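> Could you send the Persulfide dioxygenase ETHE1, mitochondrial prediction when you get a chance?

Sure thing. Input:
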Amino acid sequence: MTLRHHHSLEVHARVKPVQRTLALTLRLRPNTEGSSYAAAESRRFCPGVSAGVNPLSATTRWYCSRMALTEGLLFRQLFESESSTYTYLLADPETKEAVLIDPVLETIDRDLKLIHELGLNLKVAVNTHCHADHITSTGLMKKRLLGLKSAISKFSGASADILLLEGDKINFGKHYLTVRETPGHTDGCMTLVLGDQSMAFTGDALLIRGCGRTDFQQGCPKKLFDSVHQKIFTLPDRCLVYPAHDYLGQTVSTVGEERKFNPRLTKSLEEFVNIMNNLNLPKPKKIDISVPANLVCGVHDV
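Output:
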């Protein structure tokens, strides 16, 4: 055997399967809070996989952050750049019944165009809370879509066709969303959980590696801490977390990730309250316009 051939066999023997190599690469990359390359790549390709777990051994239905875990569900995640707001469209592809979560006034034409292109019957447009950084499009959308109903928490103080409470269900085809009241950012914050608990739309209560501020609109750090731990962190680890906003380009997380890595909500209640009371954030630019408009379904002076 030649020296060159012997060396080739040694190299070949040292090569591991691609799955192990990929897993090792992900483990060795530095994992700093919220913004590291490894964390971003891991969430983007394998949002349901915990750190240190071989991503290729995960169920193939987890491979893309923009796909739903539930079979027979049409799902779209849409983005509005000025307020960094996510709008979510969910539909039953058989019945064509659909629900829209947290629509923004500036993107109403985009959203209606997509709904039309997909041939959907939008039944309900729901807001996770009374937003302070943008105006909802639910009121104006009702004028353009016959039969559409708006929805929001009863405790938001806002007007809507449907005022939601804990345990209420929003049905669309064979699917439904269940309301979990998660106050703390505002009194009227809700998390909407898909029937099989594979997806949770957390509004501003739980963000990716963060949470909503608690220094205005009935904000209360203790309420928010209790809400997240009792109503969201009790969901299955692999449940996908889809927040109302993200300011770092992150699209999705999981309950297991946030329970383990969220830099605020992994602290004790006392530490969390201290953090939230000392954020010293600037006032939202549009709060004086957005809140009054959103209290009347977004049709104030429109």
